[in-house]
Amino acid sequence: MERFRDTLQKGGTPERKEEMCLLMTDEVLTYRGCRGSIRYSEADGCFYGRLKGTEDHLVYEGKTMRELMESFIEVVDRHISVSYTSLTRRTKMIGEV
Asked: Which helix (H) or strand (E) holds 38?
């Protein structure tokens, strides 16, 4: 776990505004109300994780912690966008009945 903290401390200033809202504690990433796991695969030499609290199998990965965080942000943004679009369609269909 120290490797995660050291990597973040060396990362410097966030390059994207969204990263300022990204929280990482122990083995969990949190962004826009979504949580995801953090794991490291020695065999593949990369970090990976899975979005928690969803029935969908949404995963992200990166060779570095920065890549992992960027991938996590993209997965969360896409998940929220798809969920919102789906909810909007269902709401319109219910309103038309």
From this structure: none
Residues facing residue 35 across a β-bridge:
30
Question: Is 0.70 topped by the overall pTM?
Answer: no
Torsion of CA 19, 22, 23, 24, to 10 degrees: -70
Query: Going residue by residue through the chain (97 aa), what tens digit of pLDDT does each one get?
Result: 344 444 444 444 444 444 445 666 668 999 998 999 999 999 999 999 999 998 889 999 999 999 999 999 999 999 999 887 776 665 665 665 4
Element (H, E) at 35: strand 34-37
- Report the C-alpha gap between 73 and 23 in whole angstroms: 11
- The alpha carbon of 43 is separated from its chain's Cα centroid by a whole number of angstroms, namely 22
Q: What are phi and psi of 39, to 5 degrees?
A: -135, 165
